[in-house]
Automatic annotation (TrEMBL):
Family, as annotated: Belongs to the ribulose-phosphate 3-epimerase family.
The EC number(s) this enzyme carries: 5.1.3.1
Lineage, uppermost ranks: Bacteria, Pseudomonadati, Bacteroidota, Bacteroidia, Marinilabiliales
Protein name: Ribulose-phosphate 3-epimerase
Cofactor names: Fe(2+); Zn(2+); Co(2+); Mn(2+)
Entry keywords, A to Z: Carbohydrate metabolism, Cobalt, Isomerase, Manganese, Metal-binding, Zinc
The organism of origin for this protein: Breznakibacter xylanolyticus
Length: 218
């Protein structure tokens, strides 16, 4: 399949959010990536359920929700009700990951699992067939605009090997430092979905920037 682009709302201009949402609706973006942070799992607080609910009907892209929170199981049904299409939890936050992924699927959402930069891909071997998506963080989660961690290319290759070995259908998503320099290598390594925040929303022409990311060949 062709790779997907998921601009991250965290980098949008919240003082003029309508303009950015209108831009996304007119763009070639495939998903809207939403980072939910609680100030405990990561050292930052972003936005939560009320923001997701307010976006319903205003964005014509699937909601790709990334939970950077403790005890995400408590809120799975709430995020479904708020409009999440994909719900992504951190491996590091889920002591019963298999059950968490099953619950997400039972709620009618696609289930994703995220790995922090220091977490090895091999830890997913027993649950990779239960995941619809694996998100590899290519920066330390919590803040936008960080430098890309070069080892991510190798990690994507490792994950691709595991997916093929286990005959999993999981997509590979990468978030952090994605731009025109890092994206080609990520696609070549096997990435399916690229999350781009600052690179899109701080561009002088975000629609063209998204189009260029869509047109990249691995």
């Amino acid at each position: 399949m062709n790779h997907l682009i998921a601009p991250s709302l965290l980098a949008a201009n919240f003082a003029d959010l309508k303009t950015d949402l209108d831009m996304l609706n007119r763009s070639e973006a495939d998903w809207l990536h939403l980072d939910i942070m609680d100030g405990m799992f990561v050292p930052n607080i972003s936005f939560g359920l009320p923001v997701l609910q307010s976006l319903k009907g205003k964005v014509n892209k699937p909601f790709d929700v990334h939970l950077m929170i403790v005890q995400p199981d408590r809120y799975i049904a709430d995020f479904k009700a708020a409009g999440a299409d994909w719900l992504n939890v951190h491996y590091e936050a889920c002591p019963h990951l298999h059950r968490t992924l099953q619950t997400i699927r039972q709620q009618g959402m696609k289930a994703g699992v995220t790995l922090n930069p220091h977490t090895p891909v091999s830890l997913l071997e027993e649950i990779i067939t239960e995941a619809d998506l694996v998100l590899l963080m290519s920066v330390n989660p919590g803040f936008g605009g960080q430098s890309f961690i070069e080892n991510t290319y190798h990690k994507v290759e490792q994950l691709k090997e595991l997916i093929l070995k286990k005959n999993s259908q999981a997509l590979i998503q990468v978030d952090g430092g994605v731009d025109n320099h890092t994206a080609p290598g990520l696609l070549k390594a096997g990435a399916d979905v690229l999350v781009a925040g600052s690179y899109v929303f701080r561009s002088t022409d975000p629609i063209e920037t998204i189009a260029q990311l869509k047109q990249l060949k691995c």
